[in-house]
TrEMBL record:
InterPro entries in the cross-refs: Epimerase_deHydtase, NAD(P)-bd_dom_sf, NAD(P)-dependent_oxidoreduct
Name of this chain's protein: Nucleoside-diphosphate-sugar epimerase
Record Pfam families: Epimerase
Annotated Gene3D superfamilies: NAD(P)-binding Rossmann-like Domain (3.40.50.720)
Superkingdom of the source species: Bacteria
Limits of the NAD-dependent epimerase/dehydratase domain: 2-225
Amino acid sequence: MILVTGGTGLVGAHLLYHLCSTNNTVVATYRNKNTQNITKEIFELYGDTTNYKNIVWKKADIVDIPELEKVFIGITHVYHAAAKVSFKASDSEQLRKINIEGTANIVNLCIKNKIQKLCYVSSIATLAKTPGIDFIDEDCEWNPEGDHSDYSITKYGAEIEVWRGSQEGLPVVIVNPGVIFGFGAWNLNSSQLFSKIKKGLPFYTNGTVGVVGVQDVIFAMITLMNSTVINQRFIMVAENLSYHNIFSLIAKTLNVKPPKFKASKTFTEIAWRLNHLVSSLTFGTINFGLNKYSARAAHKKRYYKGDLIKKSITNFSYTPFTTVIKEICSKLP
């Protein structure tokens, strides 16, 4: 039987849809019952809720070992997609607890229960550019001296736990997606961007980022889990695009005005500090989501090579990003 952690997030919900179409039952963890609505909505957006009943929901927090032990009964394969995504300094402790300690708990229970294979959803945030090399690929390593966000640090720490598991005999695969785009979960991560642009987003930066459609990530995860490939990581990046290109493409598809004011580094440095001040004075009730790391990342130009997955999976090809955006926009509320 298959276990999916993080089944109420964007990746987890899309993963559950595809797994449930070929499996009688799939176990998924949740912490808050209300978040199951995200998963159900994504099934509805696919236009088929028939197999939603195949999800066996089990309440469990990945940092609560007694709860997790009950969830692992009868499990043979694990997709670990649960994580906290935040760039707020105030979330530092929670990021470490959920992303590192929680992943360690998953790995330990996989080993204890002799799980046949673990697929971990990491991030390109754990990879650093090697001097003299234009693209970041699977051979690029973490730079301990870099200026990393707590999110990046904790995702790297989680990877260390997964690699530890592989050394202790647990077969693993890791996917490192770029920024994932997919329909549904409209208030989470990249999905929030669509409503902001629809309402009117005036600013853009010329930084670049690797992007990928959620369904490409899901297809790769499922195929890798059903293959003989073990103890390997795969960067999942379809294209490297500037934020200006991404924002403009979304705006064009939604038939709204694209952002026209280029935000300089000085502008964003001032903006994140003002946001921090306002957020502190209002006890977090007013926060525009801009912080030190997101502001600086908006200007960085990094290019990722996602070719290894194409060599490892027969007939795999990335969905063009324009196609991904069109599908999302067509389903936007």
